[in-house]
Design a protein that fits this description.
Elements lengths: L4 E5 L3 H14 L3 E5 L2 H11 L4 E5 L10 H9 L5 E5 L4 H10 L3 E4 L4 H12 L26 H11 L4 H8 L3 H15 L4 H11 L3
Parallel strand pairs: 1-2, 1-3, 3-4, 4-5
Helix pairs in contact: 6-8, 6-9, 7-8, 8-9
Keywords: Phosphoprotein, Plasmid
Organism: Cereibacter sphaeroides (strain ATCC 17025 / ATH 2.4.3)
Protein name: DNA-binding response regulator
Length: about 210
């Protein structure tokens, strides 16, 4: 099986080296590093596109207006670029997602959460942490009563960032059943995907 190619761009050497070592070990991935936007652009021109890029929101070359994000997406052939930051304003995250970012991870999250987020994005989803409330997302229900007991269990797992395989193992059900529950949850909550369901669910469930 071919290793995933991951690039991490962060001007804090310790941060990017620790993340790179962790991802290389946990995901058996090939991880490359850059300390600035220019270094990342040079890396992309030399190595070609990456399966996913982790891009620090505040670093040398990251110009106001997120123009650098658009440039990196182009150089990475529109493959996923996920932002990482210590404390980003919700408005900036919304703009980044609008421009094509595949998600956002807070540096205060656990290392395991980062791996889950990366796998989530590699599966074609958009990832944002539970702590980020998207004002544009509104549930069609205001409590848990519209969901069955099993759907509530699945929703709790979603809010904890678990993937389908992990949910299946946790609840002792098949992945096919998990997918059916997720579709039902999204329909009942009137949301487009599991990410939105998890964000809404975190407002109503104690996890």
């Amino acid at each position: 099986m071919q290793k995933k190619k991951i690039a991490i761009a962060d001007d804090h050497i310790l941060v990017r080296e620790v993340i790179a070592m962790y991802l290389a070990a946990q995901m058996e991935a090939e991880v490359m590093q850059a300390g600035s936007i220019q270094e990342l652009e040079d890396l992309l021109e030399k190595e070609g596109s990456f399966d996913i890029i982790l891009l620090d929101l505040v670093m040398p070359g990251m110009k106001p207006g997120l123009e650098a994000l658009t440039r990196i997406l182009e150089l990475n052939q529109n493959k996923p670029v996920m932002l990482i930051s210590g404390n980003a304003p919700p408005g900036v995250i919304h703009e980044a997602l609008h421009r094509g970012a595949a998600g956002y991870v807070e540096k205060s999250q656990s290392a395991r959460s980062l791996v889950n987020a990366i796998n989530f994005v590699l599966a074609g989803e958009i990832y944002v942490p539970m702590s980020l409330r998207l004002n544009s997302v509104r549930p069609s229900i205001t409590d848990e009563k519209g969901l069955s007991p099993k759907e509530l269990e699945v929703l709790r797992c979603l809010t904890n960032g678990l993937m389908n395989k992990e949910i299946a193992q946790t609840l002792g059900i098949s992945e096919v059943t998990v997918k059916m529950h997720v579709r039902s949850i999204c329909a009942k909550m009137n949301v487009k995907n599991r990410t939105q369901a998890a964000m809404i669910g975190s407002q109503f469930l104690m996890v």
